[in-house]
Amino acid sequence: MADTLAKVSKTVVECRRCPRLVAWREEVARVRRAAYADEEYWGRPLPGFGDPEAAIMVLGLAPAAHGGNRTGRIFTGDRSGDWLFAALWRAGLANQPESIHRDDGLKLHGCYVTAAVRCAPPANRPLPSERDNCLPYLERELQLLSQAAVIVCLGGFAWDAALRALAGLGIATPRPRPRFGHGASITLRPFQLLGCYHPSQQNTFTGRLTEAMLDEVFQRAKTMAGASTLSA
């Protein structure tokens, strides 16, 4: 049977490749944070989410233990997600500025959000082997998102994972490997990578990443995606 995004999502949700991550995500879902004690946690890997005709992919690091691991949608239920989806809404890529839970009516337009690692990792630090176990899922999403032209990489981990996934698809990358930076970009046809600081509390609370900076990234991504479409 030919792959579809729905089939990839089903495979992701059922994945148990990484014993450390399986144990952690399930422990968090069982113990729960006091503020969410009455909620039923998702406690499984998270598939990507968004428009199957997306020209822009947003690639993050991994689900938050009490965010996506709780709600069942990537970047949902934590401060990082609050920043991200508000910015997507301001950019005209989402129908509402909030992502609260997986049945809240949120729809993305021309955008698909996913992560390099699909399970919440302890201390938000996946191991290289865990990243590598997840790379085939990212590769398949890139293949199945036939209109994808721009990958917005939220942080250096996502930037590195994107380069590895593209290499896995046979797309050559320059040597030395391009370095991540906010606003850094590189063309690896048929894709363009665009770097953006991750909207983590560490970055947003300190002012390293501002709403204006995030808005500029997504406006630039839209311009890049439009230019790719015109030149295709």
Task: Outline the fold blueprint.
Elements: H1 5-13, H2 19-31, E1 49-50, E2 56-60, H3 68-71, H4 79-90, E3 111-115, H5 128-144, E4 150-154, H6 156-168, E5 185-188, E6 191-196, H7 201-206, H8 211-231
Parallel strand pairs: 2-3, 2-4, 4-6
Antiparallel strand pairs: 1-3, 5-6
Helix pairs in contact: 4-8, 5-6
In CATH, what is the homologous superfamily? Uracil-DNA glycosylase-like domain
State the end-to-end CA separation: 29 Å
Helix content: 40-55%
How many strands in all?
6
What radius of gyration results from the CA coordinates?
17 Å
Structural class: alpha/beta
CATH class: Alpha Beta
> In what range is the share of β-strand residues?
5-15%
Q: Using the coordinates shown, work out and report the CATH topology.
A: Uracil-DNA Glycosylase, subunit E
Largest sheet features: 6 strands, mixed
* CATH architecture classification name: 3-Layer(aba) Sandwich
| C-alpha geometry | globular
Tally the helices. Answer: 8
Order of helices and strands: HHEEHHEHEHEEHH
Strand order of the largest sheet: 1-3-2-4-6-5
| Average pLDDT metric | 95
Unreliable parts = none
Total individual domains: 1
